[in-house]
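User: Let's play a game. I give you a shape written as tokens, and you guess the letters that built it. Ready? Here's round one.
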């Protein structure tokens, strides 16, 4: 059976395979050229330590190095349990375990091409879908992220893509069963990474708005989805209440993250050296107060700093905004020559993606598409919490698949506009030639 070049070039499987190959290829390059062991830092702090506690039979606990602090709600459970399973099979913090988990992350990242393709296809057709999938497959940050940090980031990116794909499909469904399935998808995603919770109310409002012409259904069906999400998250919330005798719906670490980016020692976006995993005095405070009281204390201190230093806080928010969208809080012309080619590529592609995705949103609004509001939610709402706390490429990565769709939509819309303009001019030229040809004989007779 012969497979044509056209079939291959229009196949979704090709960007998925290329995406996985590029990510694994980057892993191979690091494996052979980076200092050994290059996996010490990428294991992360809390995820690795919680997974270790699970693997040795101590349960979901002890997120800090060298501190047996008991139960934790620092993270939600899906990824730490996945990593714990890898530890069980291949050893705790071993090189083999590292290669295994980052290969799994590479797979999650590559599979995100699938929802990206179908979102783009639904938005603007096959070409837009394939363009979006290829942008995600080749996007430098997406390639290096699985190897930068062992975290839930790559799985979250794939799940956010699935959520958006399901949202677009759900607007046409009046079946309660479909909305229950949608709620379960959201519940699972929140157990992977609760950060996307900020998107949920706006997305449900958009879905209700899309059903506004349906009597009673516009409120009933989103309520069914919301109730399913709550029920799906209840077991974890109950576990947290039993462990801490306090209502912690998803996770507990907001106070620390806020304080790391808002204290008297912050000069750029955050104070990494004050994290209790690597700072002995802070780790001692954590051990003395316990996780919940420690987080409450840090939240109080952070809010006090923010209230008493409004001008500095405004500068920090701007730094985080710039860092989120460009990859640096410093003026790019000032640092461009000091960057290696990797840094230059990262900043250039970050800026290009930001510009193209913004253009995509504006084109959607200009075309008066109903999806415009839905897509605008992701770049507008999701990063807000990081402007207040602190930023990282790892934090923005979950919405990058959506940004790739918007970038593809902007590019394909521009190409379509140019082609239409060219076709209009060509048709006008042909019409002029036809007109001249039909009048030539009468002119000659004169």
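Assistant: Ready! My guess for every position:
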């Amino acid at each position: 059976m012969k497979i044509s070049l056209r079939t291959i070039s229009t196949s979704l499987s090709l960007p998925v395979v290329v995406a996985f190959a590029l990510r694994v290829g980057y892993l191979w390059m690091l494996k052979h050229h980076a200092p050994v062991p290059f996996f010490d830092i990428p294991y992360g702090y809390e995820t690795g330590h919680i997974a270790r506690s699970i693997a040795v039979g101590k349960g979901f606990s002890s997120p800090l190095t060298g501190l047996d602090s008991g139960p934790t709600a620092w993270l939600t459970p899906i990824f730490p349990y996945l990593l714990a399973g890898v530890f069980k099979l291949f050893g705790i913090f071993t090189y083999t375990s590292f290669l295994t988990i980052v290969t799994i992350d590479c797979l999650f990242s590559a599979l995100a091409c699938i929802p990206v393709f179908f979102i783009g296809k639904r938005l603007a057709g096959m070409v837009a879908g394939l363009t979006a999938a290829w942008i995600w497959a080749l996007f430098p940050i997406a390639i290096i992220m699985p190897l930068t940090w062992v975290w839930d980031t790559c799985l979250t990116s794939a799940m956010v893509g699935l959520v958006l794909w399901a949202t677009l499909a759900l607007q046409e469904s009046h079946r309660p069963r479909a909305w229950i399935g949608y709620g379960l998808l959201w519940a699972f995603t929140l157990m992977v990474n609760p950060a996307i919770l900020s998107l949920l109310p706006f997305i449900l409002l958009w879905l209700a708005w899309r059903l506004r012409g349906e009597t009673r259904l516009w409120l009933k069906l989103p309520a069914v989805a919301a109730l399913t999400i709550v029920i799906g998250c209840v077991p974890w919330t109950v576990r947290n209440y039993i462990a801490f005798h306090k209502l912690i719906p998803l996770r507990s670490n907001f106070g620390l993250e806020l304080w790391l980016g808002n204290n008297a020692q912050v000069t750029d976006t955050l104070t990494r050296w004050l994290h209790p995993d690597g700072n002995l005095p802070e780790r001692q405070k954590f051990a003395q107060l316990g996780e919940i009281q420690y987080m409450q204390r840090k939240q109080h201190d952070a809010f006090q700093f923010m209230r008493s230093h409004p001008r500095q806080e405004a500068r920090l928010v701007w730094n985080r905004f710039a860092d989120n969208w460009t990859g640096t809080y410093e003026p790019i012309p000032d640092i461009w020559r000091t960057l290696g080619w990797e840094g230059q590529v990262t900043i250039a592609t970050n800026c290009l993606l930001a510009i193209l995705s913004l253009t995509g949103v504006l084109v959607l609004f200009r075309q008066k598409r109903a999806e415009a509001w839905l897509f605008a939610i992701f770049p507008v709402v999701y990063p807000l919490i990081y402007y207040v706390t602190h930023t990282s490429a790892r934090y923005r990565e979950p919405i990058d698949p959506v940004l790739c769709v918007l970038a593809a939509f902007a590019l394909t819309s521009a190409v379509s506009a140019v082609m239409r303009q060219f076709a209009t001019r060509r048709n006008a030229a042909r019409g002029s030639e036809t007109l001249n040809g039909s009048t030539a004989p009468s002119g000659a007779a004169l």
